[in-house]
What we know:
Oligomer: single chain
Radius of gyration: 20 Å
CATH architecture: 4-Layer Sandwich
Number of domains: 1
CATH superfamily: Carbon-nitrogen hydrolase
Strand content: 25-35%
CATH class: Alpha Beta
Number of strands: 14
CATH topology: Nitrilase/N-carbamoyl-D-aminoacid amidohydrolase
Strand order of the largest sheet: 5-4-3-2-1-14
Helix content: 25-40%
Amino acid sequence: MKSICIASISMQAVYDKEQNCAAILSRLDEAKDKGAQLVVFPEQILQGYLTDTLSLNFDNVRWQFEQAEVISNGSAITQITERVKTLGLYCVVGLTERHPDYPQVLFNSVVLLGPEGEVGRYRKVHQPGDEKHVYYPGDNFPVFDTPLGRIGMLICYDKVFPESTRELALKGAEIMIMPTAWALARDSDDPNEDSMVDSYTLFGRVRALENQCWMVESNHFGHHGNLDYHGHSRIINPLGKIVACTGYSEGMALAEVNIRQAITQARSTDYIGYNFLKDYVPVQAHPSVLTVRSHHAKQYGEQYDEGA
């Protein structure tokens, strides 16, 4: 059980793909110099995120279509892939992905790159607000074997849904990686007291603890589009403890961790001997509005119309 060094990046995106790409390459070099073997970047850091998710901006939609890349041959993602190979490390990068055969189909994706090239990719399943008008959703949560451990990926809004990380854990993920574009609510003068920072922290720590897995989160920082992003890129251990965090700033959260040892301890002795995945019992639930309405109608003797 060897230790590895993980770096999670907090950085500001701009609507200039070449500039974002150059910043990513620079951060990769910096992370390598600091000993990192796995480097994680924010959601859609290559092209920049949507203006926001509550106002459909067609200029920004047009930008996403113009700047989207096919992962196998996109100019910017190819540069990043080659740098990763040269440096001999692994990294996760968020981008707007174009389908190789259907140019009108875009995905909000992350790609896992390594010395061998592309290891795998993940397309965002849960899409908030105006993402639904721009991107096609993914339909699975894959897990990939690497020399560093088994890696599963999710993106931002996915972590609101416990089934997403539970599926990764049940598939054997040891490191759950979550690039995000998580902005401030602007309801506090202190960004560390902001309600959206609070929920971001709560979701991340709980998802790590309830699955007794590592969680690596990477967030944007600064003003981008209509939003202000708060950073707090971080590394969370299988007990839900934050072991490294950038805080409210750009920068790099860096930690040397023993992935498998920490998971083994978390699932054997650290949490009063409880192994949550061993004790897990699947629940058959049907989260449908119609199902809920039907249940209440039958319970209270109300007439229920299936076509309503």
